[in-house]
Amino acid sequence: MSLDKRNSINNILEENRIFHPSKNFADNSNIRSFEQYHSLKKQALKNPAHFWESFAKSEIDWFEPFETVLDSENAPFFKWFKEGKLNITYNCIDRHIKNGLGKKTALIWEGEPGDSRKFTYNELLKEVCKTANALKEIGVKKGDLVCIYMPMIPEAMFAMLACARIGAPHSVVFGGFSSEALKDRLIDGSAKFVITADGGFRKDKVIELKNAVDAAIENGASKIVEKVIVVQRTKKNISMLKNRDYWWHEIVKNQKDWCEPEIMNSEDRLFILYTSGSTGKPKGVVHTTGGYNLWSHLTFKWIFDIKIDDIYWCTADVGWITGHSYIVYGPLSNGATTIMYEGVPRPSNLGAFWEIIQKYKVSIFYTAPTAIRSFMKSGREIPDKYDLDSLRLLGTVGEPINPEAWMWYRDVIGKNKCPIVDTWWQTETGGVMISPLPGAIATKPGSATFPLPGIEVEVVDKNGKKVKENEGGFLIIKKPWPGMMRTIHGNSERYIKSYWEHISFQGEKNVYFAGDGARIDKDGYIWIMGRVDDVISVSGHRLGTMEIESALVSHESVAEAAVVGKKDDLKGEAIVAFVSLEKDVKTSLELAERLKKHVVSEIGIIARPEKIIISDSLPKTRSGKIMRRILRSIAAGERITGDISTLEDSSVLEKLKESS
Length: 660
Ligand code: 7RM
Hints:
Layout: H1 23-27, H2 34-46, H3 48-59, E1 70-71, E2 79-80, E3 85-86, H4 88-101, E4 105-110, E5 116-120, H5 121-137, E6 146-149, H6 154-166, E7 170-172, H7 179-189, E8 193-197, E9 200-202, E10 205-207, H8 209-221, E11 227-231, E12 245-247, H9 248-253, E13 264-265, E14 269-275, E15 283-288, H10 289-304, E16 311-314, H11 321-333, E17 337-341, H12 352-360, E18 364-367, H13 369-378, H14 381-384, E19 393-397, H15 403-413, E20 420-423, E21 457-460, E22 473-477, E23 487-488, H16 492-499, E24 512-520, E25 526-531, E26 535-538, E27 541-544, H17 545-553, E28 558-568, E29 572-581, H18 589-602, E30 611-614, H19 628-636, H20 651-659
Parallel strand pairs: 4-17, 6-7, 6-8, 7-14, 8-11, 11-12, 16-17, 16-18, 18-19, 19-20, 29-30
Antiparallel strand pairs: 1-2, 3-13, 4-5, 9-10, 14-15, 15-23, 21-22, 22-24, 24-25, 26-27, 28-29
Helix pairs in contact: 2-3, 4-5, 4-11, 5-6, 7-8, 10-11, 13-15
Bound molecules: 5'-O-(acetylsulfamoyl)adenosine.
The site of 5'-O-(acetylsulfamoyl)adenosine has 23 residues, from helix 11, strand 20, strand 24 and strand 25.
């Protein structure tokens, strides 16, 4: 890990604009003043166990109460609310029906193109129970891992909740991942069951999900996967294997519409979700029931200031953690109305988001900086055509937001009346960790502001020493929190190494290393500076450089590969790959294109390199390490600065510059 990649960010002008929530917004919000935020923070600091206990009791319904709030005996394998028994679907559905909200809309689904469906909490319960009974019929048992590889359709939500209903952890794999990537995840998790669709609509194209599942099974997962359920979405022709593949509409239709929620222990697994790290294959991040339920619920309530009549929309895909926590579990646990959109904005449909906001009178809107930047680029004339007056709160997630995009969002979309919550968090944290509370905290464009009550963070140097004001350093989290990951599936060693061994703060062990750089300004505001490891973020999608390198090297023509991120105005970062070829392979533009395609088929479209630079050799240190710092400069078209004395062969540099 190093900070040099981000040093230039330290040169940015200090941002002095500050925006206070309006009096009206503050007066009507759940946490309505800085003092109130501060008092919560103080309570948490003084007596964390009591703080978490009281929220766990007031916000979550337990079938049996817990006794221990936090068990640190086997740290960093922390346990939360360990004797407690619950079912997250009871908290997400049944309890709202008991409280008279059965007829409230739980889910609004906007399909592609022009399709739409709505489900009340009563209807959601039926769909989930029927799906759960179908899972039982094909043999899914408590504890079995079920892989969900689906487009953004209501059945994806039903599938997740049905798994949780019967105590089968889910492993959602984003529909944009290739069959190779799916295969790796099926094998790593030993998923016996897959729920998929015949296909999905994406950007005017059809993605062939079922074919990808078939290929994944054929190419290595045949001993693992036993049964597949297929939703009919595109009606494209696909093959169905007898006694293995079942149509959703056939197997779900005749099920009973009640399924008793399984009684789960607080620390029983709720799901695995794969995310990229700096080394090796993607990591299966494990989340468990009680802590995750509380954290997704409480953060949603605090940050989105949810009210009974809000219409809330998060534009993420359920294949990512944002979709898990803030399309499905957080909103539903709060009894909110959540929107799910199958499409993505694209040139032929640039007004799609604003049309949906107008159509459903969306009041809370949560999206990614990369989307905001692309809307900025196509001009305010497009959103200006729509009535966005229903909006009262805006959010962003996934990557740092530049102040220009923040200001544009505030002005053009929020009409200068909506607070913006810039939410920093990770797959590993389960829910948001640093974010303004919209009624309580004044915001600065580009800053995620302060940690939530109960979350203690610091910015330190590599020795764990607090850095000075405005100085870049490593972001750490000093205390465990309920929504934290519990381990990496099948690799507890890697869990410790990746997150808990980098830094000790004031001699304390069990300090969580987030992998991000940050600085804290004179007012205590936190500015996230991006990853400090070999993880790059393309349109907010997290990818390990190693993963892309392995994909390239798996091609017969490639000898060696090194991948770096290059700053991109729209996507945040773009992928640039440096490749040296096997002996006797000739370089050509056509080969570079083939290599791009190869990466897409190994990982998925999100990993497609923007540029492939083919060269005889790569710059290495005398000990054989590829010098990425140099490659980053070349990719960015910058002068190479800093020490190159460890470089083994400096003529490589000239050659590289020529080929780039
Ligand atoms: C929620 C999510 C996590 C990484 C994280 C950061 C970056 C996320 C922000 C952000 C600056 C933000 N999970 N990140 N949110 N950077 N400001 N508000 O994205 O596991 O897929 O990625 O994303 O680098 O470490 S994730």
